[in-house]
């Protein structure tokens, strides 16, 4: 109940901010930061809770984005329908990928998820309806609801998606599914011997994780007014999605949120002040530092500080 109140207050805060007369770049950068919150939260459901490292993040983002493009181009679907459609197809992809790969473990599972990215990218690059390899320019519809610009509207939409994704992750953590996934992470053999339906819960986690990544990618075409395969299937998404939960902490639903807010904000500042090319370097340096000095992330550091202060 307390969390629901906080979520509602946060939603009102984002709505109020989107209606304020402030610099438009805040909403342009804020969209990316909130998108990273969704991606980090989605990745952690499978990668953090269950310990299955998924490098196929760009594939799920792209399915969401290109589903939105097809829906908009074919039937002029509104943004809400685009997001729902992108989430459903990305969730279906997660289920299929799970059925094909979840019997693999460790590095073999990770390699299989990378292969999905290259397979889908090849398909999209040869699909002329969505622009093929050259990409597709899109015209935003005039409907802005109560907002002054489309960027402000997309910022608020992504805020809703971020709050919803975090709420789902929080519910999963304390549910039977979350307990089962943590048992799988600790020892899959022991979990099976204890009666945990390991394959079933991994498939559910893979489906939910994929769907959330899909809804994070669905608004992207309208955000950029353009879509092309190279940027959409960029493996930097995989690095960021992996890095944010590790930096924040994978043991709790708030960890990926902290990591995403920190990492995405630093990247936006670096992009504006130095160069966009340094973003990957920032992620790499922070990952090395946290893996070596704080393997349990920021949450681990806070826990150690609390223990030492007693």
Give a verbal description of the structure.
- It is a single chain.
- The chain has 310 residues and is mostly helical.
- It has one domain.
- Helices cover 75% and strands 1% of the residues.
- It contains 15 helices and 2 strands.
- A two-stranded antiparallel sheet has the order 1-2.
What's the alpha carbon Rg, rounded to whole Å? Answer: 19 Å
Order of helix and strand elements from N to C terminus: HHHHHEHHHHHEHHHHH
Kindly give the count of domains: 1
| Beta-strand fraction estimate | under 5%
Q: Low-confidence parts, pLDDT < 50 over ≥5 residues? A: none
Topology of this protein?
Layout (H helix, E strand, L loop, with lengths): L1 H18 L5 H23 L9 H19 L3 H23 L5 H19 L10 E2 L12 H24 L2 H11 L1 H6 L4 H20 L2 H5 L1 E2 L1 H4 L3 H13 L5 H20 L5 H15 L3 H12 L2
Antiparallel strand pairs: 1-2
Helix pairs in contact: 1-6, 2-6, 2-9, 2-12, 2-13, 3-4, 3-5, 3-9, 4-9, 7-9, 12-13, 12-14
Summarize this structure briefly.
With 310 residues, the chain is mainly α. The protein has helices at residues 2-19, 25-47, 57-75, 79-101, 107-125, 150-173, 176-186, 188-193, 198-217, 220-224, 229-232, 236-248, 254-273, 279-293, 297-308; strands at residues 136-137, 226-227. The radius of gyration is 19 Å and the shape is globular.
Keywords:
75% helix, globular, 2 strands, single chain, two-stranded antiparallel ribbon, 15 helices, 1% strand, 310 residues, mainly alpha
């Amino acid at each position: 109940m307390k969390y629901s109140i906080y979520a509602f207050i946060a939603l009102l805060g984002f709505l109020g901010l989107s209606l304020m007369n402030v610099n438009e770049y805040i909403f342009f950068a804020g969209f990316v930061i909130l998108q990273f919150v969704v991606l980090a939260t989605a990745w952690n459901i499978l990668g953090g809770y269950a310990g299955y490292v998924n490098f196929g993040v760009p594939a799920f983002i792209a399915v969401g984005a290109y589903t939105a493009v097809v829906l908009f181009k074919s039937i002029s679907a509104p943004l809400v329908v685009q997001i729902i459609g992108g989430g459903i197809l990305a969730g279906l992809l997660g289920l299929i990928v799970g059925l094909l790969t979840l019997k693999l473990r460790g590095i073999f599972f990770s390699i299989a998820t990378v292969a999905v990215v290259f397979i889908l990218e090849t398909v999209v690059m040869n699909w002329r309806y969505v622009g093929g390899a050259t990409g597709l320019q899109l015209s935003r519809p005039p409907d802005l609801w109560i907002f002054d610009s489309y960027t402000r509207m997309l910022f608020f939409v992504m805020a809703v998606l971020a709050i919803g994704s975090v709420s789902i992750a929080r519910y999963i953590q304390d549910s039977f599914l979350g307990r089962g996934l943590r048992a799988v992470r600790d020892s899959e053999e022991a979990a099976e011997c204890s009666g945990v339906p390991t394959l079933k819960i991994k498939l559910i986690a893979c489906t939910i994780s994929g769907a959330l990544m899909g809804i994070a990618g669905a608004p992207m075409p309208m955000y950029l007014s353009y879509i092309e395969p190279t940027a959409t299937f960029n493996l930097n998404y995989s690095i960021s999605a992996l890095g944010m939960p590790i930096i924040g902490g994978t043991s709790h639903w708030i960890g990926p949120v902290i990591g995403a807010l920190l990492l995405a904000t630093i990247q936006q500042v670096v992009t504006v002040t130095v160069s966009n090319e340094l973003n990957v370097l920032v992620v790499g340096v922070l990952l090395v530092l946290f893996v070596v000095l704080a393997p349990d992330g920021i949450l681990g550091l806070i826990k150690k500080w609390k223990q030492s202060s007693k």
